[in-house]
Amino acid sequence: MNLGRWVFGLITISVSWASHYDNGGDKNSLASVSTENTTVRLEPIEGTPNYILKKMEKSTQWFPEREIKLDSCVRRAQCEPLNKTTCLGAKLPYNRTSVHLTFYDSQYQIQNQLELYRELINVPKCWAVVQPLLCATFMPNCENILGQDMVYLPSYEMCKITMEPCAILYNTSYFPYFLKCNTTLFPPKCENAAREMKFNTSGKCLAPLIHTDKAPHFYEGISGCGLPCRDPLYTEDEHRQIHRLVAWGAGVCLALNLLTVATFLIDWRSANKYPALVIFYINVCFAVASMGWLVQFGVGSRDDIVCSKDGTRRQGEPSAEENLSCVVVFVLVYYFMIAACVWFVIFTYAWHMSFRALGKIQDRIDKKAAYFHLVAWSLPLILTITTMAFGEVDGNSVTGVCFVGYVNHPMRAALLLAPLSVVLVLGGYFLLRGVFSLIAVRVSSKDVISPRAANKIRQTITRCSLTAALVAVFICVTVACHVYEFRNADSWKEAFKRNIICRLEGLKEGGRECAAGARPSVSVLQLRLLCCFAAGALMASWTWTPAAAAGWRRYMAKKCGCSVEADVTRRARKHELIARAYKRRNEFITRGRLSISLGGSRQDPVGFCLDNTSPVDYPEDAKHESGELSSSWAANLPRFVRRRDALVLPPHTHHSHHSLSSTPDRRNSQDSQISISLRHVSVESRRNSLDSQLSVKIAEMKTKVGRRRTKHSKAKRKRASARKESTPSIESQISRYLLHTVANNDPSREEVKFSFD
What we know:
22 helices; Frizzled cysteine-rich domain; six-stranded antiparallel beta sheet; 4 domains
């Protein structure tokens, strides 16, 4: 019996070989069986235990290239009947299988594992492509081919197609070694019946991920799912904390900025001058930016600004699929904050130039106003257009606004941190130069300026230094917070990814605890936002001055119908001027110089006008108007004082002359000198202003009358005659100058200071 079977097998093999060589087959093929219409042949795959199963029909048929059928790949295995005819809900087109492609021993274990693989439904794109691979591996078709049990192998293409959608799980327990894509386990270009099976490909996303069809919004490693609009790295309570901070910070900043803008507008004639005018534009920019921060608190506004239609966070705006609310908020916040920074640099520059040459630089700064506006509005515009052109506008549910580089950190560093660093360097340089200039003025002129002027310079130095320090702190803290986010963002993302993977594995294994991992600090974000809003409040604080308070008092009095003339002018009566000069006679004897002010002019709200500081003896409550005070009287004030003998003729003198000097050195000298110096005179008029500010500055108008001992009395008489005629001549010139200037300017805003040497 056995001998008969052996003879029959030998004949069969001989016939197969003959048929194989007759058909031009490969000599390396294992075997070939010819039937009535087809020839079956097994060809070994070099270096593997696999074979290619070729089925060739005797009748030659032509197929288009796209319809060429692939050969199946098989391997020796032990077949057994299927215990279950379905796999993952799809009906199997065969009734025998093998467990040899896995490390499980029975179909029961395999079916239990397949049920656990149903949790991959939480990774939708992966679930759609991995089901054929799972069925072809766990429950493959198995047949007897050429007298041997052969299991059909899944192809390499079936495995490779799962790598990208299932990338997040590729190194987990969901993909054991027998599911790893390699050409030994999965021969390339092989046909498999599982490819034609119909599976349910619908899936869902594991919370907090949500479904999305937009490829740019896919979460890394989980195609078909994206991050929700509300940032999962922050809790709901932290969201509420940040929203409250934004509401209070932006609200207070807006209120202070609007108050500063109103302070300028109610007294625009006095405030419309540089560098104080720059503070107006800075506060306008911060006010508009604060409005951009507050837009999110409208009904449904935050979701409309930062969320896409599919519920994911907005990225890469502007886009054609979404509305422009995100872009509008971005422009309000980013453009005007950068504009405020540029205006701050301009402010420090104008400040520096003003302090370098007090009383002489105003016209030069005014001529640069057009350039200031060109730079302040064009540079932020260029940065804003560049950001939108690169599509780097992203939404953020925590802050509630759209801003640059929430996703792409290098772009945020280039378009935000780099400009802030430039502002810190340039603004700090000009601020320090201005402070040093004021210190130099104070030190070099301590014997000339009055104590009140020195006190005002000291206050200005303090304000400059404090502003420089606070701005430096705000910018440095802001940069540090961004750097903190840049350095730790990858670790936060990786911790969140591990949490997702852990939860997916927990669904398969059960009872697994998953740690939240590293998360961003909400305190750092709060600190960064506080620096932003504090900078706006700092710029508003420049108008917290007595001059601004006086402007509001005048405005309210005017609106209430009260008289405001008493507050407009600070001028003394004639007898008060002479009394003040007499009161300070000791100062004149000691210093040889005396300064008297006829009145103070109105200052800008910032209080930068250092030239108009009234002397120390000026009464605080002096609000008298001297409408009858003429320029002729002002020019003759030295003669009035001299006539009263209040300053120049001590009781022990035995000779009289027309000199204003009362010091022993000057009184006993052979050369007596009359020096009338009307200092601090300049006319500042604005091109489009109805009023002008008069401050008289006639420098070095001196008449020198010397008495020298000479042998020629005629020459002596001529010199004496010249001396007597010189004083009225100079006083006449002064009178004409003052009459001309006063006639062309508002008397209520004039200021005349005399300094007698």
